[in-house]
Amino acid sequence: MEKLESKKLVERLYHTERQKVFGFLCKKLNSREEAEDMTSNVFLEAARSAESFDPSKSAESTWLFSICRNLLNRHLRDLYTHKRIHDANFNPSEEETFSADEIDGFIQRDCLFEALSTLPETQRNIIILRYYKGLSPSEIAERLALSYSNVCVQTNRALAKLRELLQSR
Q: SS3 for 31?
């Protein structure tokens, strides 16, 4: 991809996907400030690697969210490592460490996000709208201009694929 094309790609993604990236990071990080910083980092990294984007391998949004996921994983790993080093002077009364349940939650959410990113875009959108946004199948059908039965079929296919991917881990 040429430099001009890659610059336009990142600009377009910034305008269309910025809020989605920010919302996703807000949920994962539970901090608006950290999410703002990470959102900036996602688009900086996208700008750095835009020339290597291959539209035959993935959709633009999938590519962007893989960058987002990788940066989030790196951030959480660094945070966890920092906590472990910091906790060399462990004090059980301090609430500075991640519990085993929190770490399991990070890992499970990451696995789920990775599995979601492998779904076709329509199925991924249906799952996100249904289970993250809480929309009914009829609301999803209206929003995505699909039939109600198509939404139900696509939901079942997506859930089966997610189940298969997550059980193989």
A: coil
Q: At what angle do helices 60-86 and 32-49 cross, to 10 degrees?
A: 130
Residues 81 and 16 placed together within one structural domain of the fold: yes
94-124 per-position pLDDT tens digit: 444 555 666 566 666 677 777 888 888 899 8
The one-letter amino acid code at 7 reads K
Secondary structure (DSSP) of 74-122: HHHHHHHHHHHHHGGG--TT---SPPHHHHHHHHHHHHHHHHHHHS-HH
For the stretch 21-74, pLDDT in tens is 998 888 888 888 888 999 999 999 999 998 888 888 888 989 999 899 888 888
Q: Compute the distance between CA of residue 160 and CA of residue 31 in angstroms, rounded to an integer.
A: 33
The DSSP call for residue 145 is T
The total number of structural domains in the chain stands at 2
The neighbour count for residue 33, using CB atoms within 10 Å, is: 9
